[in-house]
């Protein structure tokens, strides 16, 4: 009996671990299939990995917490972020709003998150550069707050 149940248990646990990322996977797959892109990923559990501040469109945010997975996709052609932002909205991700200040930079950043309780389980940064689009995703147990 154990020989029959054990494979199904591993299969169920594998799908359970993967299921949390399926919405983001659809976005990555769409972008990879429709554009020239380079994709990288890292999977490694790291406790208290995040303790950093980010300046996003002139607004500083503080990110702390644990890391479990990271992905990056660089689209090497000029692609506007509008379609990517629409995909994140359709998949149910929440846009973290930033007050924009004057920028000399030619890039713009959007942050989409999926929460698990009060913490953030997924954070997806969409970076629109002059000649490319970068999608950086981090997974874990994080807190994002205004820098004090």
Major beta sheet, strand line-up: 1-2-6-5-4-3
Class derived from helix and strand content:
alpha+beta
Helix content: 25-40%
Give me the number of helical elements. 3
Note poorly predicted spans: 1-19
Extended strand count: 6
Largest sheet: 6 strands, antiparallel
For the terminal residues, how far apart are their CA atoms?
A: 57 Å
Radius of gyration: 17 Å
Textual characterization of the structure:
The protein is an alpha+beta fold. The chain contains 3 helices and 6 strands; from the N terminus they run ααββαββββ. The protein has a 6-stranded antiparallel beta sheet with strand order 1-2-6-5-4-3. Strand 5 and strand 6 form a beta hairpin. The N and C termini lie far apart (about 55 Å). The N terminus is likely disordered.
């Amino acid at each position: 009996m154990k020989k029959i149940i054990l494979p199904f248990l591993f299969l169920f646990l594998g799908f359970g671990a993967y299921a949390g990322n399926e919405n983001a996977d659809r976005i990555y797959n769409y972008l990879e299939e429709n554009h020239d892109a380079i994709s990288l990923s890292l999977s490694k559990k790291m406790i208290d990995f995040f303790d950093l501040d980010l300046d996003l469109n002139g607004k500083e945010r503080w990110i702390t917490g644990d890391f479990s997975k990271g992905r990056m996709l660089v689209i090497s052609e000029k692609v506007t972020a509008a379609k990517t932002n629409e995909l994140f909205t359709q998949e149910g991700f929440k846009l973290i709003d930033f007050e924009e200040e004057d920028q000399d930079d030619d890039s713009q950043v959007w942050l989409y998150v999926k929460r698990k309780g009060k913490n953030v389980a997924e954070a997806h940064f969409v970076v629109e550069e002059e000649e490319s689009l970068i999608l950086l995703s981090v997974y874990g147990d994080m807190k994002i707050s205004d820098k004090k």
